[in-house]
Amino acid sequence: MAVDSRRPAGGPAPVQLLIVPYDSGHRGVRMGKGPEHLAGHGAAARLRAASHTVAEHPIEIDQAFPAEIASAFALQRAVAEHVGAAVATGWFPLLLAGNCNNAVGVAAGLAAAADERAPVGVVWLDAHGDFNTPETTTSGFLDGMALATLTGRCWRALAVSVPRFRPVPEDHVLLLGGRDLDEQERNALEGSPMLWVPDAHIREHGPAQALGPALDLLASRVELVYLHIDLDIHDPEYAPANPYAAPGGLDPSTVRQVVRLVAERLPLAAGTLAAYDPGCDTEDRMLTAALDLVELLAELAPGTTPT
After folding, report:
1. Per-residue confidence band for 261, with pLDDT thresholds at 50, 70 and 90
2. If pLDDT is split at 50, 70 and 90, which confidence band does 203 have?
3. Which is the most buried residue in 42, 88, 147, 264, by most CB within 10 A?
4. CA distances for 67 relative to 58, 74, 127, 141, angstroms
5. What does the pLDDT read at residue 246?
6. What is the topology classification, in CATH, of domain 15-300?
């Protein structure tokens, strides 16, 4: 892979901000407003002020009749193309996305540029498990199946329509959070080889103690990680992300500590911030937390040289 885990003397990593302003196939509504809200409130400017080279790329689809499932996989195909091109030319891909299911596109894009000797794992921060399938979901919300799709549990025929997509082995995934789960989803997680550290464990023991064993185990299996952050990992008392945010999450400082611990243990191949609905953030607390994370992810990205 074009990402080098050693930061070169040339300075901070160059970053491609990939902006995907869709929620459930609809552009610029609900959580689909979040990516452009972050971009419009200075995400790129903050990175440039920190001496990063930055390129912004909006990702759009042209569909006369938006449909959640078809639009989601069309977006994932576009995301895969952009992520693959970014990594192949030495940029760190940082996705600002409405929905978590764009992670399928990120994984496919990373696979397109991957070295088979450097397997890429996933660290997934989320209030939810996103581990439902069409057989277990009671909401029918495709985004509640994002991690199940990424690991090959469902939507297999559409997932393979994303070029180079390969399901991520479940034991190459670490879920951090998952405080709000359906009963069947919880049963699936508990029966999976996926690593899982609940929010409550992180709050009780602190990030370093809570995550250390899981990160050590993940590092024995993979050499790079894709860090996916659904912003509702934050407790809405501190920073409300979207209508689905549940109490019992983490405060922004703890989320940043978690991100640092992950990046210190395993080099980052790509990052995502997802599921921000500005309409729920009347005091701009999540806006501040999310922009801080944009800057932090860029700071922690392995040094690369764009070509």
Report:
1. very high
2. very high
3. 147
4. 20, 10, 25, 12
5. 95
6. Arginase; Chain A (3.40.800)
